[in-house]
Amino acid sequence: MDADDPSRPLRDVVQDLISPERDVANADVSGKRVLLRVDFNVPVDEATGATVTDASRITAVLPTIRLLAGRGARVILASHFGRPEPKKQSRAQMEAAFSLAPVAAWLERELNGSSSSAGGGGGGAHGCSSDDSGSETKQNNAANGSGGAGAGASAGKVFVGLAADCVGPEAEAAVAALQPGQVLLLQNTRFHAGDGANDPGFAGALAALCDVFVQDAFGVLHRDQGSVTGITAHVAECYPGPLVRRELRELAHRLFEPARPLGVVLGGAKVADKIGVVAALVEMADVVAVGGRMAFTLLAARGVSVGSTQIEPDWLEPCRRMMARAAERGTQLLLPGDVLWSSSLAAPVDTGVQVLTLDCCTEESPCIPAGRYGVDIGPATMAAFREALLGCRTIFWNGPMGKFEVPEFGKGTVAVAQAMDEASRGRGAITIIGGGDSVAAVAAAGLDGAITHISTGGGASLELIEGKGMPGLRALLRGRRVPAAPAPAPTPAPAPAPMPLPVPQQAPVAAPACCAAKKCCA
Asked: Segment Disordered: which positions (predicted)?
């Protein structure tokens, strides 16, 4: 079997990629052109578009950049940024809105110790003002045991600037001018439609710039794109970067074989995006708590009428099957028993807390009347989720509980963050944040200090848990074979049912008198 075969169990792929022989730290990269795929899709100042406002994705990969440069590699950074539309926008329009220049300015300051911007030109790249970074380079070389391998950088700058393009003559000239130990940032890969379309011509042109490909953008590994998967068909040496390997160790090991009970909190907008993950988690988790807008589709599938709150009718039947499976297996599936509603999604207008019950919420008299929208989980649901999570030894969370970007609608999300923090600090639980908006919510609440692992990829972390896809991981093993499987062993006993939890099954939230009389609560 090919090592990158889509039918190969993802667990086996992960084991291959975290093995010592797949560690780029053990590879000889001195003098080689190393294309490092990174995720620099970072937020910038909305007013000017010129300043990076959250550099966490850049700082996460800095150790990899310094490792490669310190060992004498000629490092070429490739990333996407934003959502340019090359078939609709001119090059000037894309550069005005989606250039990686703000990231180049940040790298200039960090790697060269300069306060200047990444403007100007020279050497095929938008040059940065020079300064003496030799001492830093020598320290990096010494720390990485590279001796004089990075001597080219010690004579000038480590970071040479932003190339005018990511493929073609301008990119080729900028790469050709690189010296060992220097770092170049290519312009946004998505300025070319061939990246998103995984066009072989684009992938081949990108691959022509390098001798070695290192994938350290965990957040794009679920994408089948030219700079993620296509490039590996044209480069003989391909490695997962240190950041990707760490993500695989933290996520795969802790969630494939978790300390039980395993609790999972999922939020966000669309069931269509996460139903496969929810179904997979029903098979592996002990507790699955669902909030956010997607919870309303599950509530509707259970028979609760939710008024004007948007649901996904086409996904009601898959939700019913998933809930039936959860009941069959004994997985504790928790849905909101009360919600915060508002007459506006943009701000708290005429708000209230509403109990959700089957008796009370009918199509004729929905619990959430027309013109009002569910915007967050309610206080009773916050308490129920907290109680269940504090009984777990491993907790994974992905997605907000409501429209958390409006502060008044973010209390449920903050409550989950507080429960994660309490489980970590007070109970020694393993807590994992699966990227995306959950990371921003935890950071904003100042509750990220005790979290065991914060992933850099939202969609990628979910697909890894689901155990399917992840073409960007599989592509790193392209061209390799795995030994034929041995004769099948006796069929193992079925997976044990979830461990009993020290919390009861979610009890119905006490309904007010109008619900007890089976009348809709206004």
From this structure: 112-147
- Looking at residues 72-79, what average pLDDT do you find? 98
Q: Can you state the percent helix, strand and coil of the chain, rounding each to 5?
A: 40, 15, 45
Q: What is the DSSP letter of 286?
A: S
* Structural contact between residues 293 and 268, judged by C-beta atoms closer than 8 angstroms: yes
pLDDT of residue 456: 85
pLDDT computed for residue 50 by the predictor: 83
The angle that helices 271-284 and 316-329 make with each other, rounded to 10 degrees, is 10
CA dist 158 to 27, 71, 153, 357, Å? 21, 12, 5, 62
Check the CA dihedral 247-248-250-255 and report its sign: positive
Please give the Cα distance from 412 to 382 (Å, whole number): 6
Count, in order, helices (H) and strands (E) of the chain.
20, 16
pLDDT over threshold 80, residue 55? yes
Other residues' Cβ atoms within 10 Å of the Cβ of residue 91: 11
Which residues contact residue 480 at a Cβ distance below 8 angstroms, ignoring those fewer than 6 apart? 2, 3, 4
What are the angstrom distances between the C-alpha of 49 and each of 94, 96, 291? 13, 9, 33
Cα 236 from Cα 239, distance rounded (Å): 10
Q: Where are the domains of the chain?
A: 10-244, 258-467
CATH number of the domain located at residue range(s) 258-467 in this protein: 3.40.50.1260
pLDDT in tens, 289-302: 999 989 999 998 98
pLDDT at residue 373, as a whole number: 85
| Cis preceding-peptide flag for 261 (omega within 30 of 0) | yes
Which DSSP string do the residues of 149-190 spell out, in sequence order?
TTHHHHTS-SEEEEES-SSSHHHHHHHHT--TT-EEEPP-GG
385 compared with 352, residue with greater pLDDT:
385
Pick one of 2.60.120.260, 1.25.40.10, 3.30.830.10, 3.40.50.1260 as the CATH number of 10-244: 3.40.50.1260
Dist. CA 172–CA 144, nearest whole Å: 28
pTM comes to 0.80
- Nearest in space to 277 (alpha carbons), one of 286, 264, 260: 264
Q: Give the separation between CA 406 and CA 402, rounded to whole angstroms.
A: 9
For residue 210, give the 3-state DSSP assignment.
Answer: coil
CB 169 within 8 A of CB 197: no
Residue 231 CA to residue 237 CA, distance in Å, equals 11
